[in-house]
Design brief:
This protein is mainly α. It is 75% helix and 0% strand. The chain has one domain: Helix Hairpins (Orthogonal Bundle), CATH 1.10.287.10.
Length: 89
Amino acid sequence: MSLTQENKQEIMENYRVHETDTGSPEVQVAILSEKISRLSLHLRTNKKDYASRRGLMQMIGRRKRLLSYIQKKDASKYTALIQRLGIRG
């Protein structure tokens, strides 16, 4: 259910802005998106896991705040990131 270190490294390599980037908003959104998709799969089979559902809602809120920050800073980066991740319709 959680991400392994190898998965995080792979995501960081795909979404980083510069060579040593590990915590830019783009990377954070990509990692959160992967966690959200994995947790959503878990909740489909475990419908009464309300504690994990709450954690999912918190992650979705954090991702939404990061995306709004990216949109305010650079709208073209925002649209490119949304397209790459396949979120928002």
